[in-house]
Write a structure and sequence with these properties.
Length: about 220
């Protein structure tokens, strides 16, 4: 589904250079649930951003369904992200002044599309928030905030969810719940790639991708 070939990424800060990814070959298969683990600074977030076309590699290639996105314009990459990818981050990035329902609908509102009420209600139900749709984020628990963010990530019917430490700000009970929701979505066909420091959760993934010093460990 998504393939990385010899991907390298170097960041430059003044005179300093950081080799964040050093020749990553990786294939994400359609329908799998993969956990990305590794020490802080290993390159996990960089990898996720490149898989999600939020960032481009310095060298190497990213292929979606066999097609390289090398040289694509920002406009084309934005469309690819919108059509195929849902993002979930450690910080939930909800809009404080909007209800849960409107936060879920946000990707549609941004594009001046009128959200379908039934669809938003269905998404809220999928993450167990059917009784919270009128609440504002401040009235939610952390776990509920992340469930709102997951529903928002699903609004465009993505093929894959890319989650960067989605349980990083949650206690173990809420972490389990988020993981179970992602597992359930995966069972219904969604591909999931999730960065996590939580070894218990990683162990429950189909596959663990270990990153160290900018490389995938064999
Ligand atoms: P991880 O997610 O495993 O903690 P990251 O991908 O965030 O690792 O970072 C990998 C390396 O790249 C780290 O050394 C980090 O400091 C560096 N890095 C990440 N983003 C930037 C950036 N925008 N500018 C400079 N260096 C960065
Ligand atoms: P971390 O992994 O360091 O805890 P996050 O996972 O919350 O941080 O976010 C990773 C990076 O992605 C941040 O630099 C953030 O600015 C960026 N980011 C968050 N949401 C989006 C988005 N919707 N589109 C593009 N970049 C985003």
């Amino acid at each position: 589904m998504i393939r990385l070939q010899k991907v390298e990424k170097i960041y430059r800060r003044g005179a300093e250079t950081v080799r964040a990814l050093r020749g990553v070959d990786l294939e994400i298969h359609s329908g799998e649930f993969a956990a990305v683990t590794g020490p802080s600074g290993a390159g996990k977030t960089t990898l996720l951003h490149i898989v999600g076309c939020l960032d481009t590699p310095g060298r190497g290639e990213v292929l979606f369904d066999g097609v390289s996105v090398d040289g694509w314009t920002d406009k084309k990459l934005t469309r690819l992200r919108r059509e195929k990818i849902g993002f979930v981050f450690q910080q939930f990035y909800l809009i404080p002044g909007l209800s849960v329902a409107d936060n879920i609908a946000l990707p549609l509102l941004f594009r001046k599309q009128k959200p379908d009420k039934d669809r938003i209600a269905t998404l809220a139900r999928m993450v167990g928030l059917e009784n919270r749709t009128r609440h504002v984020p401040a009235a939610l628990s952390g776990g509920e905030m992340q469930r709102t963010a997951i529903a928002r990530a699903l609004v465009n019917r993505p093929e894959i969810i890319l989650a960067d430490e989605p349980t990083g700000n949650l206690d173990s009970k809420n972490s389990e719940k988020i993981f179970d929701i992602l597992k359930g979505l995966n069972r219904s066909g969604l591909t999931v790639l999730m960065i996590t420091h939580n070894a218990n959760l990683a162990a429950r993934a189909d596959r663990i991708i270990r990153i160290k010093d900018g490389m995938v460990e064999a």
